[in-house]
Design a protein that fits this description.
Layout lengths: L24 H4 L6 H14 L15 H30 L1 H5 L4 H4 L4 H29 L1 H19 L5 H15 L2 H12 L4 H11 L2 H16 L10 H23 L21 H14 L14 H8 L5 H9 L5 H5 L1 H7 L4 H6 L2 H21 L8 H15 L6 H16 L4 H12 L2 H22 L12 H37 L3 H10 L15
Helix pairs in contact: 2-25, 3-7, 3-9, 3-11, 3-12, 6-7, 6-8, 6-23, 7-8, 7-9, 7-12, 9-23, 10-19, 10-22, 11-12, 11-19, 14-23, 15-23, 15-24, 19-21, 20-21, 20-24, 22-23
Amino acid sequence: MSDTRKSSLDKDEYKVSEEVSDTSSLSDNHIFQQPEVAQYWSKVYEDANYENRHRFDPNFTWTAQEEKKVLRKTDMRILSFQWLVFFALDLVRQNLKRAVSDNLLQELGMDQTAYNNGNTIFFVTFLAMELPSGLISKKVGADKWVPFQIMAWSIVCAAQSGMTNKAGFYALRAMLGVCQGGLIPDVLLYLSYYVSYTSSELNIRVGLWYTVLGISQIIGTLLAAGFIELRGLNGLSGWRYLFAFEALISGVIGILSFFLMPAGPTQTAGILRGGKKGWFTEREEKIIVNKVLRDTPNKGDLNNRDGINWTNFKKAISDYDLWPIYLLGLIVYIPYQPSQNYITLILRQLGFSTFESNVLLIPYQVLFSVMCIGVSWLSKRTKEHGFISTIANVWTLPMLVALVCLPQVQNSYYNWVRYALNILISAFPYIHPQMIAWLSENSKSVGSRAVSFCLYNMSYQIGSIAATRIFTDEDKPYYTKGLYALIGISAFSILLPIFAKGYYIARNRWKTREWNKLTPDQQLEYSTSTTDIGSKRLDMLFTH
């Protein structure tokens, strides 16, 4: 059920009967069972011109088996393709660290400082486009904006195969960041709002979506191992073939996205989407729409082609109740990024060959994907966010300490130990999916969610920019100073999620006290007439 309060109603009305095993709790027990509440939200949906309002039905019921069938269908038709969209982004976004295992830096007349600058330029432009891209996507629709983004960055990736100097490298890194910035929050909003997963469904599915980060790198690593071996063919470097071929893969996905991204669950008709019939029957559309609105009623308070006006934007950006999660996004991911971003350079500096420096990445990429799903599953299973978020740096900190303690000598034994430790750091239990689910659950409104996804991803990118400056050229190959900095950040990052959890517990206690001061009639009147929106509503608690 939604975390919208039921205090003004008989609690027994919302207790799922143990005798009814074949029906969904959202079918039988939901907020709209009280006519006054259903009437209030129906007016909200009409006033907002919510695109799925014609499927809203407070009296509609369905079975749990039907819901599971529709969920599987949604996963296969929509989630699976969004996985490919993310694959296209990450394949291109991360190909530079594979290209530098070849002679890219030498051929462009660059050193590690220039490489760091290129990464910084990419993150800065990526960051700068997060919010503009999110606002554009909300106005024109993710189904139209995302395909355009994919085609744009595919062209830029292809252009990278023609780089000849440092200036061209910097320019194309900037353009790539502009084209790719905002894609992740755009798709996350698409999954949480346009596609309409419930809060509990979204958590594990974002985890599945983020397995791309491991699997795309496995595929990218194998591609790099092959294409870099083409060095000298037709007088071209291997890294040029790599950029060109990965641009082709991304471009094909971009073309398909014009046809395979529907605007919403009731707007699936189209070429490659079942023609005029679309993907879902009328009953299936009603199941999707009503289960989501019963889980989170305010997912219908905005049309999917409505932009965010200045008033709503100010309210969203000043929603201080979401700032603890932004702070987490800023800091907790820094400790693993230098090892992951510089792993190929580190291995080359330790004496591994170009081929070995690519193939030896596969173990961490497999483990990263496994742990990405595991963390999301654990969060859903335990209904916990704060303590789960500490896992990432509880894992990372011991490996960072071990790297500092290793003797600074190069031989076969210590090189393999350093390799193993960097691989384990790079495999990092990725808490990003469950953090996004946490943010989505606490955003409480579509307008706030559209902005908060962007702001959270921007905080992540700011942290990523900081991470590019930790391993410096003068500190190689052991990066002792950088490791000491990462140890301090990692230790602090273990505490931060606990502080965030404590904040939300305190806010919930305050809301509960204020809510309980109201009589049942006042509670009902508040639920149907308050001007408070999103997380400011007393009848909506925060998850933690």
